[in-house]
Write a structure and sequence with these properties.
Layout lengths: L7 E8 L8 E8 L14 H14 L3 E3 L3 E3 L1 H4 L29
Antiparallel strand pairs: 1-2, 3-4
Length: about 100
């Protein structure tokens, strides 16, 4: 591991930015070029390694939408073209006790 700076192995963490999606992806990518000097890169080398990973992210089906962020392959596809997903399992309703008949004197 090279501390996340090229040249070497860099780990990327990606999360879907859709409101109701929790999809996440983690992948390692070998960056062959060294980052620009810190004086020229005020963001801290993020743009350098992010640009290197953009093609790989696109190949995996993720879509980047300006001002909204990254969307996973499922959220990138229009709803009309998505496969029908099975309904999510819901918690069963709690069992209620039956009322007993009032005691008679």
């Amino acid at each position: 591991m090279t501390d996340g700076k090229g040249p070497g192995l860099v780990r990327f963490y990606l999360a879907c930015d859709a409101a109701d999606c929790g999809t996440r992806a983690v992948f390692d990518l070998v960056i062959e070029t060294s980052p620009p000097p810190i004086e020229e890169d005020v963001i801290g080398h993020i743009t350098h390694s992010g640009a290197e990973a953009a093609d790989y992210i696109k190949e995996q089906g993720w879509t980047f939408i300006q001002t909204f962020g990254y969307f996973c392959p499922t959220c990138s596809t229009p709803r009309s073209e998505r496969r029908a997903t099975p309904p999510t399992a819901r918690r069963a309703a709690p069992q209620r006790r039956t009322r007993r008949a009032p005691k008679r004197p």
